[in-house]
Amino acid sequence: MEEITWELFDRQVETCRLCVLCANIHHKVPGQGDRQSPLMLIGEGPGRDEDEQGLAFVGAAGQLLTRMLAAIHLPRERVYICNIVKCRPPQNRVPLPEEAEACRIHLRMQTYLVRPKVIVLLGATAARYTLDPNIRITRDRGKWTERKGVWMLPTFHPSALLRDETKKAAAWEDMQRLRDKLIELKLYPDLLGSGQ
Ligand code: URA
Fold first, then answer.
1. 6 found inside a domain
2. Position 179 in a domain
3. Can you name the residues that pair with 40 across neighbouring β-strands?
4. Nearest residue to 18 (alpha-carbon basis) of 125, 111, 126, 109
5. Distance, CA 193 to ligand 1 centroid (Å)?
6. pTM over the 0.85 mark
7. Residue of 21, 28, 44 to test ligand 1 pocket, by largest number of atoms within 8 Å of CB
């Protein structure tokens, strides 16, 4: 079998035809950031800006996400960001189960390559396909689950925060939980120090 490498991943996403979403896109959006990051963030799927640029989380929600990370002293370039599906669903609809399932092969490969210690699941779609299909994000956000040594935290999607400001306080609590976990695990010592 061919060795799993970033080159293979890039090629596999670029040539993927496993579902119909790629029929109507400008660019695939595989994900980007530090490919050796201890922290991975997973969203739902590319929107219009992401589809135009081929980059994850570059629109309004992405800019909010960048500010949220900066608030806990994490520059965006130091994390890895990707989505459940790598092609924009029409009208930004939620990916269909068969689309998310088809794209799982790519997410599995990139998780294997990044080997994150902590994964933040942005919104219900990411949480359901990664952690548990029965998750309700309002009920289950902010709770840590450990799987095979990887800590996972579901939280609100930044788009939800843009639509409903009242969710921001809970999202901020989740960012504090994230920061505390990164410190506990001694990740990013140059940025987070011993947590004082
Ligand atoms: N929303 C997502 O879930 N992902 C993006 O990349 C942009 C917006």
1. no
2. yes
3. 80, 119
4. 109
5. 30
6. yes
7. 44
Instruction: Decide if 136 is inside a domain.
Output: yes
Q: Is the Cβ–Cβ distance between 120 and 40 less than 8 Å?
A: yes
CB-based contact 122:31 (threshold 8 Å): no
Please report whether residue 147 resides in a domain.
yes
Domain residue limits at 140: 24-185
> Any idea what the CATH number is for the domain that residue 158 is in?
3.40.470.10
Closest CA to 83 of 130, 135, 34: 130
Calculate the alpha carbon distances from 178 to 3, 141, 185 in Å: 33, 12, 11
Query: How many domains are there within the chain?
Result: 1
Mind listing the pLDDT tens digit of every residue in the chain (196 residues)? 789 999 999 999 999 999 999 999 999 999 999 999 999 999 999 999 999 999 999 999 999 999 999 999 999 999 999 999 999 999 999 999 999 999 999 999 999 999 999 999 999 999 999 999 999 999 999 999 999 999 999 999 999 999 999 999 999 999 999 999 999 999 999 999 964 5
Question: If we measure between CA atoms, which residue out of 40, 38, 31 comes closest to residue 190?
Answer: 38
Nearest atom within ligand 1 for CA of residue 56: 6
Which residue type occupies 64?
L
